[in-house]
Every structure is written in C-alpha cells, then in structure tokens.
Amino acid sequence: MKKYISVGFTKKTHGTKGELKVAIKDAKIEDFCKAFVLFLKLEGKLVPFFIEEVRFANTPLVKLEEVDSREEALDLTSKEIFLRTTDLLPEDDRQLDLDRLKFEKYEGFTLIDKKKGAIGIIEKVVEYPQQEMAVIQYSGKEILIPLNDQLVLEVKEKEKQLVVELPDGLLELFQ
C-alpha cells in the first residue's frame, strides 16, 4: 500500500498572511479538512507542513504553520498536495452520501412561500453550478426554484413541507 496519496494541489496565494488557495479532489475534501499535516512535493521530495487552519471562502483556503507572509506562500503555489494514507478516514467514518444533494431529501415535500403560501410539490432537486434547484409544477409550467440556506426558513418533517422566503417577483416571472 502507498504511504502517500495525492489529494489536490495548491493554487495562488490569498491575502497577506500566508494563506493559499487549494483545489482538493471532492472525494478527499473530508480527509483534507481533518488532517493536521499535509505534504507538498518540493524539488522532487515530499515536505511536511502542519496545517494551522482550513477555511472556505469561494474556494478552500489553507494556512500553514510558519508560513506567515504572501512572499513565503508564493514559493508553495502550484504544488501537488499529498496526505499520508494513515491519515485518511476509514470508509465507514465518511459521509454516507457524498454525491447526494443537500436538499434532495425534500423531494415530495410541498414548497411553501412565507408570503404566497403553497407553491407546489418538489418533484425533483437538480444541481446547477453553485446552486441546487427544486423542480416544481407552477401555473401549468415546470419551473425551477433556488434552494439554499438563505431562502429556506423551516423544514416541517411531519407535514412534509419546506418553508421558504422567495425573492419578490420571482414567481411572477413564470405567470
């Protein structure tokens, strides 16, 4: 078994305190977030770096210990990132449905707008770039309604209802 596995690569620097933008393979993001050390390939050798912090802006960012300036971080851009295989999570500790959409479990629920009332039944949840969308029949047409944490106000499991606050004028676009 290999001792190290490639999980992604560093991209550009971010800010002035030594943070790096990183691209991590989707299947390994959970491993990366829980790791305390990563390895970068520098001059043909794997060099360990302790992780001070991982955070998410538009892209994942990592702050490495003892890399405290943009200049220091510049030397670490465009490098392949490795984790030790011993640091990977066991398969049974991973999220069960990594490919499942966050709002997919609400298919069959009635979508209720806070102001307008019942909109329709969520027939399907589909993924678009940066957004999950509910497919609903409304005014005789199939429409797409955005689903995200800002719009969803409440989930009523027993009543099978998803309460949302849609932007003003959204439904009028479909009439």
Tell me about this structure.
The protein is mainly beta and about 180 residues long. It folds into two domains: about 5-90, RimM (Elongation Factor Tu (Ef-tu), domain 3), CATH 2.40.30.60; about 105-175, SH3 type barrels. It is built from two helices and 13 strands. The protein has helices spanning about 30-35, 70-75; strands at about 5-15, 20-25, 35-40, 45-55, 60-65, 80-85, 110-115, 115-120, 125-130, 130-140, 140-145, 150-155, 160-165. The strands form three sheets. The chain has a six-stranded antiparallel beta barrel with strand order 1-2-5-4-3-6. The chain is elongated and about 60 Å long. Mean pLDDT is about 85; it is low at about 95-100.
> Ranges with pLDDT <50 over ≥5 residues?
93-98
N-C termini distance: 60 Å
Q: Any idea what the CATH superfamily of the largest domain is called? A: RimM
**Binned strand content:** over 45%
Order of helices and strands: EEHEEEHEEEEEEEE
Q: Major beta sheet, specifics?
A: 6 strands, antiparallel, barrel
CATH topology of the largest domain: Elongation Factor Tu (Ef-tu), domain 3
Helix count, DSSP H or I runs of 4 or more residues = 2
Mean of pLDDT: 87
Number of strands: 13
Q: Strand pairing plus helix content: what structural class? A: mainly beta
General shape? elongated
Lateral strand order in the biggest sheet: 1-2-5-4-3-6
Rg result: 22 Å
- When the domains are counted, the total is 2
Q: What is the CATH architecture annotation of the largest domain?
A: Beta Barrel
What's the CATH first level of the largest domain?
Answer: Mainly Beta
Helix content: under 10%
